Amino acid sequence: MTLPPLSEFLRWLREIPAPFRGAPAGFPGGRTQVRAVVADLFETHFGAAPPKNYLEAFDRSDPTELAIGGRGGDGRVELNRLRWVLAACHVLWHPSFRAMPLPKAGVQKLLNQGLAELAAVVPSERIVDSEERREELVRRVLAALGLRLGEETAREAEDRLAQVNSVERRRIELEAAERERRAREVQEEIRRKAEEEAAAKSSRE
Amino acid sequence: MTRNAEHRTPNSERAEANKPGSPVPALPATLADQWRATWPDALAAWSAFVQLRDPVFFDSHRDAANYGMANEIAAIRLVDQMVMVNLEEVQGQRLDELALPVLAHEIGHHVFVPGNLTDNARMIAAIRRATVGLKKDVSGLVANLYGDLHINDRLYRRDVAIDAVYWQLKAHQRGPATAVWKVYTRAYEHLWRLPLQTISPKDVTAEMNSDAVLIAKIIRHYGGDWLLGVRRFAAILYPWLAEDEKEGAAQTFVLRGLSDTKQAGAASGDRQPIPDGLTEMDPSEYEDDPEFDAELDDPLGGVEGSGRKRGSAREAENTAPAKEGKGRPGAQYRQPFEYGELLRALGLNLKDHEVTTRYYRERALPYLIPFPARKAPRSTEPLPEGYEAWETTDPMESMDLFGSIVRSPRVIPGVTTVQRTYGESPGADPAKRPMDLDIYVDSSGSMPNPSQDVSYLALAGAILALSALRMGAKVQATLWSGAGQFTKTEGFVRDENAILGVMTGYLGDGTAFPLNVLRDTYAERKVDEPPVHIVVISDDGVDTMLQSDEKAITGEKTCRTALEKARGGGTLVLNIAANWKGRLARLEEIGFRIHAVQDWEELVEFARQFVRETYRDE
User: Fold this and answer.
1) Complete edge-to-edge strand list for the sheet that includes strand B56-58
2) How many CB atoms lie within 10 A of CB B485?
3) In this predicted structure, what is the pLDDT of residue B289?
4) Which of B5-9, B375-379, B606-610 has the highest mean pLDDT?
5) Of A143, B109, B124, B404, which one has the fewest beta carbons inside 10 Å?
6) Measured between beta carbons, which residues in chain B are less than 8 angstroms from residue A121?
7) Pairs of CB atoms within 8 A across A/B
8) Vertex A192, ends A188 and A197: CA angle to 5°?
9) ipTM for the complex?
10) What is the pLDDT along chain A (205 residues), one digit of tens a residue?
11) CATH of B434-615, one of 3.40.50.720, 2.60.130.10, 3.40.50.300, 3.40.50.410
12) Same domain, yes or no: A97 and A127
């Protein structure tokens, strides 16, 4: 089955229902039970809910017990991670995905591990106000499922994900900031030498 | 394009070059034909919809030199999208069989990076800010390297054998490689996952390698919005550029004939288009996405519970034009000298006054306002009177096709074609009569030089003059300094270049208002000519208007006569202290309205408000 164009997934994500955007249960004002959403998703796609120990990763509990790549201990990160999970569930609920068999392992890994690094650097609110972040989530889901959009080649899909990848961008920004500091040091050295040479020249004259 | 097209060269001397005894023997036509036959495939490497005129092939360095292409492999001009290939250099570097990647690469400069002169300028401007302390021409090199990386990576991902070009360059290495070349070629190896030293020299240090890895990431990540990555790219290359500069080493990239955007701004003949919008700095030149930068320290700053509350949805930028020009609040502008340097870095060969005129015209445009128009008793309506010949230089819409066919059924443009002529009959509606503008701009030593720093006198003058021209009025511009030192237009004219050329000049000497110009301008002014508003932009040196002229006529008399005959009033816009009343009261009594500013920047606001305040109810 051919997947719909990217614009359809972006529209689907833009119209994400309020419960999927709100705070998960366990956080102030939170009502949405993320584990229930995940369980429901698995039942829809795979006919049965995932094991209990897998679902525990979607409860708010002691962050250190969560499998979020060692980034536990920060309530904001945990809140953000669960919101990204809800958004990813909404993407996976798209009719085109429900009409095709999905790789269970891919879905499990995406929800449990794949979104943790993204949640550590991008607030989930960006799903609402940034089309690029919506595209990033859609492409992360597609990559996890081993699927590609319409006429895209594997390289095109890979390139586009690289371009919208917030985690990669953050790494680049941090490294580039260090290089900019280095450039400023060299620049300062050049300026200092030029001043010294100018001073030496004027004293000779 | 036809594959069997005759082998052409742009140089009419080709026939001469083919003569026996010619110093440079012509190459076999087959190479140019072979490359030309590849052109459609090179276009298709980007898209089936890309259309560009056929490339131009030079047989020899001598031919190529006329186009600045001696010792270059290939290049593109962004002004007329002309791709040029130097076949002698192609053969010299053993690239004969690589027509597709070389041509596709040049097309990439047209369709991808930089795409057009404006974006090329923005890229160079961003690089110039990041390469302070290095030679100025380094910005063009860095822009070329950055663009080439993006283009080549995109082509490689589309299975064009662009890597083969670099294999060949390495196989026929010429002398030691520079540090920049080492980092640059190593970046390709990381981008394309090639074994190390496939195309890079052997002595790439660990630090160079680390920078090459980061460059590869930048190229891949910013492929969709390449301008955002350019400043970082320049920062990474900075120490290597400095090292090469310190060693006095000529850049390998340049020596290998790869400077293919050096001629990007060149144009045929006198046509030298200047891209619009370059007086204003693009945010990408001096900052990044501010929200993303804020996230560097606290990426989740916007999440509930954090101390920092990020805004919700970003407000969409209002791009609708304002009813009246107000400029762009918060926009940052280059200084005129920076603007000139940028245009020259683009390869544009412009005279200083062209640059300055262009600068103030562009700065003035956002502020343009309707110039006041006075009501004349009655307007006229067109009355068809007959036909006259329609020449090919006349506007197409004025040709009367029916009348032309009546005259001759066989229509020959410029020979049998006619257009209607119209007389005038009195109409019922009042007509608006634009008021001419007589503007005097002080250019004494206390004023800034408009070609170096922003001169708000010149800018305000440009806003007023362009508004007047827009409404169909005429303008007389006079730039003045010491006694007898002035330049002016030839009376009231509608020549925008002439007017701006005068107002953006610089005299920079003493201060003596040109009373003789004011006197002579209105001595012969007829009553049936449109009214004129006199504007003088100056500082406290304006009191020289009250001195006597060379004919011993008092300034007061000259001013009174001028205002009387001008019939449109007069305004003195002066940068003076707040307590000006006493010293300049005489000029106010004569009839000039005095508008005092304490900061030259206020002149722009004055220019915008000027017309509405004075003539709103007329």
Assistant:
1) B56-58, B82-86, B74-77
2) 17
3) 53
4) B606-610
5) A143
6) 295, 299-300
7) 111
8) 150
9) 0.79
10) 689 999 999 999 999 999 898 889 888 888 899 999 999 999 999 999 999 999 999 987 554 444 334 444 568 888 999 999 999 999 999 999 999 999 999 999 999 999 999 999 999 999 988 999 999 999 999 999 999 998 789 989 999 999 999 999 999 999 999 999 999 999 999 999 989 988 988 887 7
11) 3.40.50.410
12) yes
Question: Residue B321 pLDDT > 70, yes or no?
Answer: no
Can you give the residue range of the structural domain that contains A190?
A: 165-205
* Whether residue A122 is found in the same domain as residue A198: no
Residue contact B300–A191, C-beta within 8 A: no
Structure tokens given for A80: 């953000």
Which DSSP helix (H) or strand (E) runs through B433? Answer: strand B431-434
Choose, out of B192, B233, B296, B303, the residue to mutate when testing the contact with A (most A CBs < 10 Å): B303
Mean pLDDT confidence for B333-356: 86
User: In chain A, which residues have their Cβ closer than 8 Å to the Cβ of B133?
Assistant: 186-187, 190-191, 194
A59 with A98, same domain?
A: yes
**Residue B97 near chain A (CB below 8 Å):** no
**Is residue B493 over pLDDT 90?**
yes
Does B307 touch chain A if contact means CB atoms closer than 8 Å?
no
B303/A162 touch (CB, cutoff 8 Å), yes or no: no
* Total domain count, chain A: 2
CB A159 within 8 A of CB B220: yes
User: Is A159 inside a domain boundary?
Assistant: no
Q: Does B303 touch chain A (CB under 8 A)?
A: yes
Residues A84 and A116 placed together within one structural domain of the fold: yes
Residue A1 lies in a domain: no
Asked whether residue A24 falls in the same domain as residue A111, the answer is: yes
Give contacts of B292 with chain A, Cβ < 8 Å.
169, 173
Examine the pLDDT at B155 and tell me if it is beyond 60.
Answer: yes
Nearest to A76, CA basis, from A23, A114, A112, A32: A23
Crossing angle, helix B230-247 and helix B138-157, to 10 degrees? 120
Cβ(A85)–Cβ(A58) under 8 Å?
yes
Cα separation, B325 vs B369, whole angstroms? 6
Query: Residues of B numbered 206-235 whose beta carbons fall under 8 angstroms of chain A's beta carbons: which are they?
Result: 211, 214, 217-218, 220-225, 232, 234-235
Q: Per the CB < 8 Å rule, is B299 touching A120?
A: yes
> What's this model's pTM, rounded to 2 decimal places?
0.74
Find the CB nearest A128 among B236, B242, B313: B313
